[in-house]
Amino acid sequence: MTSVTLKNIVEAPAVADIRESAHRIWLAGLGALAKTQEEGEKLFQALVKEGEQVEKRAKDTAAARVEEAKGKVVELQGKTNAQFDRLEELFQERVARVLHRLGAPTQEDIQGLAQRVERLNESVLALKK
Q1: What residues contact 96, with CB distance under 8 A and at least 6 apart?
Q2: Measured between alpha carbons, how far is 48 from 55 in angstroms, rounded to an integer?
Q3: Is 15 within 8 Å of 9 (Cβ atoms)?
Q4: Whole-structure pTM over 0.70, yes or no?
Q5: In terms of Cα–Cα distance, which of 74, 51, 1, 98 is closest to 66?
Q6: Which of 20, 86, 87, 99 could form a disulfide with 104 if both were Cys (CB 3.0 to 4.6 A apart)?
Q7: Domain layout of the chain by residue ranges
């Protein structure tokens, strides 16, 4: 009878095949890990690049919106100034009408009187000579 020893079991062809398979599985795992690390770095770099492009587009869009808003603000300022100018004009017209009703002289009346006084002064000076 043959005696079965640990040495015989360990050196048996089936065990050697199992050992070889286990070693190949181990190597495949190491290869998968290395490949994952390599591909992971490439993927990471690609994602960073894509993120930079998205950020640039977002900044460009935001800048365009800001410029558009500035244009609208300038437009509104112009309209507001025009409205204030018109309001001031209406106010002056109404004040002038009220003063006219009260009998207060207008700017034209005062200028006419100033011209008449000037002519009278000239006449008086001419008579004195």
Answers
A1: 106
A2: 10
A3: yes
A4: no
A5: 74
A6: 99
A7: 7-104
